[in-house]
Write a structure and sequence with these properties.
The protein is of the alpha+beta class. The protein has 16 helices and twelve strands. α6 packs antiparallel against α8 and α9 crosses α12. It is globular.
């Protein structure tokens, strides 16, 4: 069992069926697998649903600090720019989440939802005119990126660079041995990506303090009735989080959806037979089956027993949602893509706890409305080749997926 190295990107480059076999063996083992890292440290792989759920709801014991999105600990200069509320415990986490939640008011979410419906129409208009193309570039990427950028007030001219910075950041986060095509060190890749997004948000913060607008940045730099507001540093970290979480999850879920409906035409037919009735459960099944975010990390605060296993202070635990979403004790026939699956308590947005995804509702709306527009206007759209997957362990990312209709 210890021959499985989950820090090795060669493992994540293997077919999904090999992931499934490896994780099934780990779930059946008496003890979690310990994976060593090159720096002499290592982590325990939590692969069962009950393990992930228990750790997620006990932040007093299982800490998000110093980092929730890295197998190893980040250099201080990286943490300074990327240490978002994902990598904080209460009370700091609660404060930031409270400010962000107040900025994302029902009115703001309703406005974004209206934008989602209009944007889905515009994207499919362009798709129909263009014909066969790369689905990731032309359909899956514009939806979440455009919505996040509109909500934050990011100008359209900056969006290609935002995508490039996000791709670089994700690749480096999930790979302790990251090799950059441009020859930069892993730390340099992380810093370059984060600095760009901080600079962009810094410029917007200055502009919104001088001239408020109807966007999230304005809400967060002017504070609320309690006087709470985000500093420029906090705002930059939030933007990194929103772009990565809001963009990556939805983009990859949409890409996997097309690949899955191409591979399972019977499930596509079920959805098309009752689009409004079955699309909601279909979206949930895509999120379970694809699991756009593979894992998150926690660090043990003090010695503790967890479901029969003893962990020591400082141990790193990686919660593998990608495995928990296949747990045979929770999901009937877990390797079957079933758009009628109900109930479906998947962990596509993490497990219940203080860090459950704040944008889950909006992400579901984006995926559902985009698929509804596609299946209404180009119901035969399909992938014409296998997805090209992103080389990282952190997200189940798709970089290319040719499509036709």
């Amino acid at each position: 069992m210890n021959s499985i190295d989950l820090s090795d990107l060669d493992f994540w480059a293997r077919p999904r069926s090999e992931w499934d076999r490896a994780f099934a063996a780990m779930r059946a083992a008496d003890e979690p697998v310990h994976c060593p890292l090159a720096d002499g440290t290592g982590f325990y792989a939590l692969t069962r649903y009950d393990q992930v759920a228990e750790v997620s709801r006990n932040p007093q014991v299982f800490s998000s600090e110093p980092v929730a999105v890295g197998l190893d600990d980040p250099p201080p200069e990286v943490d300074e720019l990327m240490g978002s509320m994902l990598s904080l415990d209460d009370p700091l986490h609660a404060r930031l989440r409270r400010i962000v939640a107040r900025a994302f008011t029902p009115r703001m979410i309703d406005k974004a939802s209206d934008d989602v419906a209009l944007l889905a129409t515009e994207i499919v208009d362009a798709l129909v005119e263009r014909g066969p193309c790369d689905f990731v570039t032309e359909v899956a990427t514009p939806m979440p990126l455009e919505i996040v950028c509109r909500m934050m007030g990011v100008p359209a001219s900056a969006r290609p660079e935002v995508v490039a910075a996000t791709n670089d950041l994700i690749a480096a986060v999930g790979d302790p041995n990251h090799e950059d095509p441009r020859g930069r060190s892993r730390t340099e890749v992380l810093l370059d990506s984060a600095r760009y997004m901080h600079e962009l948000m810094g410029e917007l913060a200055v502009a919104r303090r001088a001239e408020p607008a109807d966007d999230v940045v304005t809400a967060m730099v002017h504070g609320d009735v309690d006087g709470e507001a985000l500093s420029d540093l906090e705002l930059g970290k939030l933007f990194v989080l929103l772009v990565v979480a809001g963009n990556e999850t939805t983009r990859n879920a949409l890409s996997h959806a097309l690949a899955l409906f191409t591979e399972h035409p019977d499930q596509r037919d079920l959805v098309l037979a009752d689009l409004d009735g079955r699309l909601p459960t279909a979206v949930e099944e895509v999120l379970r089956y694809a699991t756009p975010v593979n894992w998150m990390r926690r660090t043990v605060k003090h010695d503790v027993d967890l479901l029969g296993q003893r962990y020591r202070t400082g141990d790193r635990l990686i919660m593998y949602y990608v495995s928990a979403n296949r747990d045979e004790t929770v999901f009937v026939d877990p390797y079957r893509f079933n758009v009628l699956r109900n109930p479906n308590p998947h962990l596509g947005f993490g497990s219940r706890g203080p860090h459950f995804c704040l944008g889950a509702h909006l992400a579901r709306r984006e995926i559902r409305l985009m698929l509804r527009e596609l299946f209404t206007r180009v119901p035969d759209i399909h992938a014409t080749a296998e997805p090209v997957r992103q080389r990282t362990s952190f997200v189940h990312g798709v970089t290319e997926l040719p499509c036709a209709f």
